[in-house]
Design a protein that fits this description.
Order of helices and strands: EHEEHEEEEEHHHHHHHHHH
CATH architecture of the largest domain: 3-Layer(aba) Sandwich
Largest sheet: 5 strands, mixed
Strand content: 5-15%
Number of helices: 12
Structural class: alpha/beta
Distance between the termini: 55 Å
Bound molecules: zinc ion
Helix content: 40-55%
Number of domains: 2
Amino acid sequence: MKNVILVSDHKTEAVCRDAINIANSCQSDFSFYLLPPIKDINSPLVKPFLEYDEGLYYLDNKRSKQGYEKDDLLIAFYNGELRASKFGLSNLFIAGTKSSETPSCVVLISLKYLDGNVLEDKYNYLIQKHSILHLILSSIIVVHTNLETHNSSYGCLLDFNNNLASFNRVLQKGYYLCSSIENNCYERLLNNRYGNSIIRMCIEFKNKAFSSEFQLTINKLVMGDENTFNNSQIGAVGSHATASNNTFQQVNNQLPLDINFSELSQQLSILKSEIKRKAETSEELEAVLEVSKAEDASKQQDGNQVIKHLKAAGTWVFTTAKDIGVDIVTDLIKKQIGA
Ligand SMILES: [Zn+2]
């Protein structure tokens, strides 16, 4: 039996209580507990900004004071901006560590994404509720199984979620674990010691807490242009278990939220043919390879890799893209790379 301790804040107390009731009644591998909001005025969690490591060490300390063990997973909610300045990251949604890291099994979830104009008020509660339940399940999977987050977006609980649009896709799918033609998370989860219990919780969260009203709202959010939370970065839990201070996957490159990947892939393919025809020097031939990799990444809807390979392709490619009028690619390089 593994313990999972939720530390709510005033916004999330009711949701956490629901989550605990549902989770405790549908499986027997995990025992869920709720700790009341932290009232300590010296807590770093009352600050508007928080460095992730300061937060995680504080929670580790709080957990031992409450008499819990180091491998009891503690998930806390924080109402401010979570940062990892030493990695150049800000606006992280989630930061945490696996059991092999120090401190171990602590997860901090920033609720800042629920603020602002991103969500409509009347639906706030439902969306908050499901987004929080998703983040709790993702944390449990990454901490207590050998699965890791993946960069491709399938709407899976283990999507890396480097912007709000991809997180909305996860919500829209609803407690989804990707299939064997995707990253095979569902099958791989079943091979884990706690896989069955985690899947039970996915099903129960979906059945008991999922309503058609919620799905409608999420559809609207995903399709609409209300998503303006461009600078957000959703960190991953325990992405590199070997390095104790490397608890994030980096997200440095952002694509516009409304990018059309199929059009982008077509344009990259046209650009590739053109530069392939012209390439002579070894530098130019390498650029062809980078554009080809950018095209592959675009087909996988992996924005970070698209930008990374276009950056590596260099100015010759940019000039050619301008000349042949592949406007999406040209805009992308101009805006994102500052060419
Ligand atoms: Zn997956």
